[in-house]
Amino acid sequence: xxxxxxxxxxxxxxCTAILGKxxxxxxxxxxxxxxxxxxxxxxxxxxAAWSQVEWQGEFTQWEPDDGAAPSExxxxxxxxxxxxxxxxxxxxxxxxxKIEKRVTRRDxxxxxxxxxxxxxxxxxxxxRSFTLNAAGVQGDExxxxxxxxxxxxxxxxxxxxxxxxxxGWSAEIRIPLSQLRFSPEEEPVWGLQVKRYIFxxxxxxxxxxxxxxxxxxxxxxxxxxxxxxxxxxxxIELMPYAVSNSRFSPKESxxxxxxxxxxxxxxxxxxxxGLTNNLTMDITINPDFGQVEADPSEVNLTAFESFFxxxxxxxxxxxxxxxxxxxFGDGGASSDRLFYSRRIGRSPQHSPEVDAGEFSTxxxxxxxxxxxxxxxxTESGWSIGIMDAITQKETAQIxxxxxxxxxxxEPFTNYFVGRLQxxxxxxxxxxxxxxxxxxxxxxxxxxxWMKEKAYSGGFDFTHxxxxxxxxxxxxxxxxxxxxSKEAITNIQESSQRYYQRPDARHVKLDTSxxxxxxxxxxxxxxxxxxxxxxSSVGMIWRxxxxxxxxxxxxxxxxxxxxxxxxxxxxxxxxxxxxRLNLNxxxxxxxxxxxxxLFTGGNINGxxxxxxxxxxxxxxxxxxxILSTSELRGGPGLKGTGWWNQWITIYSDNRxxxxxxxxxxxxxxxxxxxxxxxxxxxxSFRPLNSMRxxxxxxxxxNRNNAQYLDKIEIENSSDRFIFGELRQKTFAVTVRxxxxxxxxxxxxxxxxxxxxxxxxxxxxxxxxxxxxxxxxRYYQFSEEEATLIETEDGQQLKLTSDSIGAINTELSNPNxxxxxFRSNLVVRWQYRPGSTAFLIWTQERxxxxxxxxxxxxxxxxxxxxxxxxxxxxxKFSRWxxx
Length: 881
Prior knowledge:
881 residues, 4 helices, globular
């Protein structure tokens, strides 16, 4: 009976939602020019200019009860002249004392807020979003892909003030038209959406009603009409900066480069040049990235590079224009892309080998001398994104008894990316292309192993139909890399492809090549709206020769994968839920030899209860049929299947104390391998302007077969050595945010990280594709695998006559790694667009081969490590001409 009752409630909720939808026709607001004087931005809405236009209201609830009447009324007015867009919003509230006024740093979007989205191109695809909360904190975002992408890293210079009374609160906003992009027209029409969020109720309401099951966002906006004949204007924004950087590190006896202190004074310039109303050139000269938060600590035991998010402001702002991902979702192949901005200014790829008595030093990152971006959209509908960056040649200094020499560690390099996209059929279809180029000046012989030239590109096409309910997406990618025989051989032997595999029938290592080409792509058909069901069917491919890692990111080539996904969404409250969803996934993969590599699937779902608590959980299964990378260039290794289960529970985020629990458990069919992770997050807000969060995490990893090394034996096949790994990792992420005012904030981030791993049960591969797990390995006895003391420290000595004449020594694989990274940032926006930073960063890093995990001992050892402290002061000043 309970099941029948629940099914009845679901059906009733869906029917009610369908029958009760309000009018979805396009609305229009008619603005006027303020006359004779524009309003003063003080939050009062009492200037005479506002009497020239009428209030517009009649908002519709969007969340939680899609299509219902809002619990509180909202209304707004708009004025526009040749210089500015003016917005007044009256947010009425029957309980004004309960309005949540949270003082935070910019772009956190907390507490009660109001927002305007402006599609000034009126391309039905992109918009600029401006948010002001009830405490006067600003937030802004660049909206693209018809609302699928919201980039809060975009920052504009605009003005907003709020006021409060016994009927609610008011907001006044002035947005200079120089911060928007548009085409001059005699009777321009812009897309418009106005939103309000009531924090205590978790309620969002919108002016132009857009059902939550719609297939788009910007394309459904209302219209802003009555705009004056806006003239084309060229704008210039300059932001010079000055930096003082002091670095304190441990002194090293005899090392002339480790004196304990380095002092650097530098400066640079960021500039925006408005070539037209809709094309902008961004220029940065000697950019500084001193205020960037450090990447999280990790121990990577795989053969693949880790993917880290971009955090540098110049590359984060407007990055959606250069979006070139080759897969949907998160993790794994979803990181693949043609443009990965962290390649520019990366750490030098070479380090000199030093002999006894020699010392060396080299830059931590490659210097970017100049970078230029051209972005915008033409009147004919072409979106344009062009970026060119130049990084300097970097050298390491080598000292031997006072005699100095230099060795190149990174060549002079030019990075280029160009992106074009054209809208058709009122924004329902897009055709685009991207091209990237990396050219290195390899005049130094010791860098000849690097690629001299690397080119990549691709095309993308998307078409939507049935009111954007369905979509078809096709993406292609092509690459060509050129260099010395050594450079191209390195690419063939890299972990992305392993051409040297002895059982590979479709690829062959060719050491005579000086160029390599490849291709890849994606095909996908999706149902995106109208009703509760969502679904997607698609495939990706990466040919063996595809190489993107000079300007982009590619984890593995030689892959073909298909997937199917179906999801059911209930967006309106019913029974005990505010919302609920359920998902089904299936996938399978092959290489280009048509060998099955993996199959898998999962069922997951989640929702939020009426008390604002929520959850997400799922269970999945993956069969690792064959791994072509586990032996690091050896033959394919038959793997074991895995089960995966996860759950997340989170509390009401309106409360002063929030908690979140994440648990993820994996266990393998081999009977012993498992990985268990627990994360707990507690966030405490003692004041409306302060938040303290603590996030401890613990991971236990037991791997029956962790790769260690390859032994080359004369007149015999190679031996691949594995061990049973038991690894424990503990980390705590601490964050403290205190916003004294909306323009003055203090932020702290710190993470102690301790990870230890010990090995036993050493094995050698004897039959990599045997059906029985135990037949794939030969396990060394305790007498055949021993740790011994040598002049170079502890070594793992392996001896065996059972599988050939093995008599070798490997480095002790046991490890204990510890690291502490922290940032303290005081940020003061002393005038619009102009900022002062005071920054302190500290890092402590140490390791040994103990392998025994002890939390208390690990933390003690961590804080016994000598710290590296960096103190930085930065001032920037914004000028608009």
